[in-house]
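Kindly inspect this chain:
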Amino acid sequence: MSEQAVLDKEILVIKNLKKHFEIGGQTFKRDKEYLKAVDGIQLEVLKGETLGIVGESGCGKSTLGNLIVGLLKPTEGEIYFEGTEISRLKEKQLKKYRVHYQMIFQDPFSSLNPRMRLFDLIAEPLITHQKMKKQELQQKVYQLMTDVGLDVSYADRFPHEFSGGQRQRIGIARALALQPKLIICDEPVSALDVSIQAQILNLLKELQEKYDLTYIFIAHGLPAVKYISDRIGVMYLGNVVELASKDELFERPLHPYTGGLLSSLPISHPDQRQKARDQVVIEGDMPSPVNPPAGCKFHTRCPYAQELCKQKVPEFKEVYPSHFVACHYPLN
């Protein structure tokens, strides 16, 4: 498939994306150092799918989401939205694209202005980007409230008068207001009780079908990612190390890190076993993104690491149909 064909087919294409934060350099004796939060990601997102991104805290998954929506500018690389490179656009040019991709944040309280009433919180993006008559605006806001499960009688309440789950529904309504094509869900259920998590996940699935949405669902909890995702990308220290459909990833993990994540899940029945999950035990902490290991970044924690892993960066390649992995010695 030609490069242009790929750009036309996918809603989002990410090429060699990097974000390095400068640190240090405060004294004459100390050279500048860089925290490599995102370090060369290649990724495509299909229209209408939910792509899950999973990994440990500090792996760079939230930074990736912020880069996609333009909250951060990349150090290197390109981000194509429906064929247009958006990461280097100026603010005026970017404004017309921002209506097509939105973000749902992890903390539903800090992401809402505590001085604004519910109606105004949902109406704000509509007023900013669209010219609507007062009656039309009211109908739109009330429809969004109904779609996310909020009673219209709550319209005059402030954020502190709502529960965590209700505040997250407000955040979802704000993200939906401009009818975007892509929504980045940055750990949208991690701050909620388990029962509320299930409600929000079900709501997201219902809204995806109703509004024809594409999701990038970022989380560190595998069960939530498996429930909502079509495909899953596993991140480690700034890179995607494995990418596959959710069923393929859980049944046949190829990267030792993925196998280790799966082995950490509780087994509901004593007879349940998966080969990779029985094999891989991850020990130690993730290395610093300021000074990542040479070669494969996971080799310092990998029980199968060999000399080649310490010297050469593994290629991110397709081992099985639509199943990609960056590992010199994949499992199985």
Notes: The radius of gyration is 21 Å. The first helix runs from residue 3 to 9.
